[in-house]
What does this fold into?
Amino acid sequence: MSNLTRRNALLTAACAGAAFGLPRPVSFVEAALAQKGPEAGKGFRPFKFGKVQGFILNDGVWEKPHDPGFIKDVSVEDTKAALAAAGIANDVVPIPFNVTLVKLGNETVLFDAGTGGQFQPTAGAMIANMAAAGIKPERITRVIVSHFHPDHVFGLMSKAPDNTPTFPNAVVYVPSNEFKFWMDESIFTKLPEKQHGLPKRLQAMFPLLKDKLKQYEWDTEIIPGIRSIAAPGHTPGHTAFHVASGNEQLMVLSDTTNMPALFAKHPNWHGVIDADPVLSEATRRKLFDRVVADKALVTGYHFPFPAVGKIVTDGAGYTFVPVA
It folds into this structure.
């Protein structure tokens, strides 16, 4: 189960509940948390590296109310100051959702599946943005999942009891240690009942994929040109991905960091969203140093739209510089 302790691994579910409102029914959070992202149909951004055509597909934004427990030992005032310094309105913490898609040879690959409109009232725009980019869900051949938080996997299928696959022709790849953690029936004996919503939904969803579901290990080639990169800390099986095309490369950072204005600029800040914040910081620094040295293009799930660009060093921290 990676380097996470059992206690911190179990905190994954608790953190998911605390951060994502999962003690409530998993599909709903108050409309007061809503914020509009790019207008549906306009929230896509094409990019290229090597011979690969990529797209960022925006799926909405979560306007998270400020909470003194959101970042350990960091005040709400410091959080607001960090957002303001990055030119971001700071009345709330605006957390975007951005899905990476690449066309690699004959494959059309999604990294994570978005919210499916089942998480925040203003999320769920990915399919509309995909259509605007000229891509049909039926054309997706692979969905490669980084971890099992709801904003990354609920988009795999419509909500219960319908459960229609969103990408009917896609093989879905999941990290094996993440799968083992969430699919373990004993998780229900280790969590309070109010936190059972997410594992219940996950355990209902994934078996429905049947032979379309495949598990992968860390540091292996999932399909030609795409390699899994161990990125533990956020969850037990959290994974980043390296995509190569000739001499050019892309690192899909997944949730290696949440908002860069907070956790890249201040890599020592520890968010409640990470199961093991210390390990998450170590992973963040390791991968950031790697992409800086390699001058690699990066995408980040919670980076500000267009969510594709470069990571550069900035004093004791790092800054995300979006593509022009």
User: Anything to note?
Assistant: The CA atoms of residues 3 and 232 lie 7 Å apart. The radius of gyration is 18 Å. Residues 277-294 form the longest helix (18 residues).
